[in-house]
Design goal:
The protein is α/β, with parallel strands linked by helices. The protein has three domains: 313 residues, Alpha-Beta Barrel (TIM Barrel), CATH 3.20.20.70; 236 residues, Copper homeostasis (CutC) domain (TIM Barrel); 100 residues, Translation Initiation Factor IF3 (2-Layer Sandwich), CATH 3.30.110. Helices cover 38% and strands 16% of the residues. It has an eight-stranded parallel β-sheet. The chain has an eight-stranded parallel barrel with strand order 9-10-12-13-14-15-16-17, surrounded by seven helices. Strands 18-19-21-20 form a four-stranded mixed β-sheet, with helices on one face. β20 and β21 form a beta hairpin. The chain is elongated, with a radius of gyration of 28 Å.
């Protein structure tokens, strides 16, 4: 919400308009209505990239296709979602001066920080007309205005004309998008000392350095949400640094050059195909591939064809920041593609064992019982949103309609799991429920057993596996740590063997009793750690839950399951029967990440660096062996790393193994695994990028 008066607009702009601003598309539902929920998700997604602010209903927002009420609806949605905590601008250009003024007043009333205005199209042919039009809108509002200089409106304003526009008291600057480099450069040189000039392309920073001017804001483009992910916001980082005067072209060339070249290729090709119209269809399709809401474009624009979308994806996928790092020349042993609970969307590649956001180490699962809670969990940064029904024995199954509804609004790269709860000892009935979850694109389905005999539980899981078929939904077997409190309860210590025999992708240990006791009251840390380690060696994903709280994070970090499941700890009052609160989710996630990265060291001191063993050059340690295998664990789930190590040891005990690790907790697990198996840790070397290279001499290779 603007916190300045009209005569302070220019000073406010100099102090506030900095870094990367985004341009929002207007997503549409399949029946061609404005998708307000999609718009909210898009805003949250863009905010997660670190973008300073965003503008709505510009050309990319298809303002020309919106009714007057739809333009106001988009403004209302953006203002409500921003909630005064994120800078927002509204584009208010219209052929009618009165309607432009009305839109400007509406934006001001709804708490927008800034207006964007372009020439009134159709009959506007002279710069005098444009200056007069903008002055009348400016006179009617107290908000600052960024003028939008684009040939899309039928006239391109000269640098001299832009200087006249910036003389209007509350016109604070220009988005100079003429696609004419000479106009952009001249405008910066002529007007840039008096008003904010922003050319929405990176080439301007090179010219700024060469010619001695400075651009303090990228106002605005779509490159943030087309190039970045929340974990790898390289574009936003580059713009924030460049607009502060740090033109790090080495960083740009390393992380952005190739994807920008692809963007330029498709941008230019799409504009040529549409006779010069902005490539809204291409950007919407690209955004959907990144997990954004888009939908079709409105007439007279046309969508990309399925063939064009497939071609775009085939060229985009290898360039995304979550793609695997280039493999070293030496042999790489990849882990089994068991990655926990991933879906089959383009951004979440199940087949190579990587999540869409290059996750490694513990992920946060938050249980939700309705759409509102799911939205809170998503906003707070939960890695997995787990749907359940708390009214059915506290671990019951959510209604299919809720699963569909949540799966529809959660971005494709995010994980939505389904809990079936305590299932009956009826293989056919459970298999039908599992099949339904797979058909609704659940990323995983959890099948739990309380009172059951082992053989029946195995049969239920095997039939469930058959029911999933070729779907990407992961089957998770579940036992409860407090099962032994119930007569005939299936022993939770059998969990790993049950998951293996039942052909599961992973397991979950949870609790049923909700009397204040939690997981660790029934199974101590050493028992759980051994269980998790055994499962990782078998290539299973691992999850722990059961009334866990913040104070349990150190224990959990030492155990290092792939997934930590919570609910009560992220509710508004810390109680399970209160709603999930995004602030609590974000804080829990932050604390978990501090342990993943090693900022909070849960078992210091650990590292000891042995003396020279011939590691630096990779030569023999004196036993005549020169074999060497590399296992690259960066961005991999810990279970995949340890399973790969175990298989390599079974296959070849003569070669030395170099494990490349990044996640701090995964490092502890590999060291623990090696020590337990009797392998010898020769060296541990930390690199400048934070990775640790561990050289392991297998047991039996002259080490014992």
């Amino acid at each position: 919400m603007a916190d300045y008066r009209k005569h302070e607009a220019q000073e406010w702009a100099w102090q506030t308009l900095k870094g990367q601003w985004t341009t929002l598309v207007t997503p549409f539902t399949p029946d061609n209505q404005v998708d307000t929920e999609g718009m909210r998700r898009n805003i949250r997604h863009v905010q997660s990239l670190g973008v300073r602010g965003g503008g709505c209903t510009w050309n990319m927002g298809e303002f020309w296709s919106l009714t007057e009420s739809e333009r106001r609806l988009v403004m209302d949605t953006v203002a409500d979602e921003a909630a005064g905590h994120w800078l927002i601008g509204a584009h208010v250009t219209h052929t009618s001066l009165n309607e432009s003024i009305a839109l400007a007043n509406h934006a001001e009333q709804r708490g927008f920080d800034l207006l964007i205005i372009a020439p009134s199209y159709m009959v506007t042919r002279t710069e005098d007309q444009v200056v007069d039009f903008v002055r009348q809108v400016a006179d009617s509002t107290g908000l600052g205005i960024m003028f939008y200089n684009s040939p899309q409106f039928g006239i391109t304003i000269s640098p001299q004309g832009l200087k006249r526009l910036c003389a209007i008291p509350n016109v604070v600057g220009v988005k100079e998008a003429s696609f004419n480099q000479q106009i952009s450069i001249e405008t910066h040189l002529l007007v840039g000392r008096d008003a904010i000039i922003s050319t929405p392309d990176e080439w301007i920073f090179h010219k700024a350095k060469e010619l001695g001017f400075h651009q303090q804001v990228m106002f605005a483009n779509t490159s943030d949400w087309r190039f970045d992910t929340p974990r790898h916001n390289y574009y936003t980082q580059f713009i924030d640094r460049a607009t502060a005067g740090d033109h790090d072209m080495e960083f740009y060339n390393r992380y952005l050059k190739d994807i920008k070249a692809l963007s330029d290729k498709w941008w230019g090709g799409a504009m040529k195909k549409m006779g010069g119209a902005l490539p809204v269809a291409m950007c919407k399709a690209w955004g959907e591939m990144m997990g954004m809401a888009g939908g079709s474009v409105r007439a007279p624009l046309v969508d990309l064809t399925p063939e064009e979308k497939a071609e775009l994806w085939s060229e985009l996928e290898p360039l995304l920041p979550q793609a695997a790092p280039a493999q070293p020349a030496r042999e790489i042993i990849q882990g089994r593609p068991h990655a926990p609970w991933l879906n089959g969307s383009p951004v979440a590649n199940v087949r190579d064992g990587r999540s869409g956001l290059n996750e490694s180490g513990m992920m946060l699962l938050v249980s939700a019982q309705n759409k509102a809670e799911a939205m809170e969990a998503d906003r707070g940064g939960a890695d997995i949103i787990d749907l359940k029904n708390l009214q059915e024995a506290l671990v019951g199954s959510a209604h299919p309609n809720l699963v569909r509804e949540v799966r529809d609004f959660i971005p494709a790269h995010k994980h939505v799991s389904v809990t079936l709860g305590v299932v009956p000892n009826q293989p056919g009935t459970v298999a039908m429920a599992v099949h339904a979850a797979a058909m609704m694109d659940a990323t995983s389905v959890k099948v739990g057993f309380q009172v059951a005999d082992y053989e029946t539980a195995v049969e239920v899981l095997q039939e469930s596996r058959a029911a999933i078929g070729n779907a990407d939904t992961k089957l998770i077997g579940s036992l409860f740590a407090d099962n032994l409190l119930f007569e005939g309860g299936l022993d939770p210590h059998l969990m790993v063997q049950l998951a293996v025999d039942g052909e599961c992708d992973g397991f979950l240990i949870d609790t049923l009793t909700k009397d204040g006791r939690n997981l660790f009251d029934f199974m101590p840390e050493p028992v759980l750690r051994d269980m998790v380690m055994e499962a990782k060696q078998a290539g299973l994903s691992t999850a722990l839950s059961g009334h866990l709280k913040l104070e349990n994070l150190d224990e959990l970090a030492r155990i290092n399951p792939d997934i930590v499941g919570v609910r009560g700890a992220v509710c508004s009052s810390g109680e399970r029967d209160r709603g999930v609160a995004w602030e609590a989710v974000a804080y829990f996630k932050e604390q978990l990440d501090l342990r993943k990265t090693g900022v909070i060291d849960v078992r210091a001191p650990v590292f000891a660096t042995p003396g020279g063993n011939g590691y630096e050059n990779g030569h023999s340690n004196g036993n005549g062996n020169t074999g060497w295998t590399v296992i690259d664990g960066r961005g991999k789930n810990c279970a995949g790393v340890i399973a790969a190590l175990s298989r390599q040891m079974e296959y070849d005990r003569t070669s030395f193994i170099e494990a490349i690790l990044h996640d701090a907790l995964n490092i502890y697990d590999v060291i623990y695994w090696a020590e337990q198996a009797g392998h010898r840790l020769l060296t541990q070397r930390k690199e400048d990028d934070g990775t640790l290279r561990v050289l392991i001499q297998p047991y039996g290779n002259g080490s014992h």
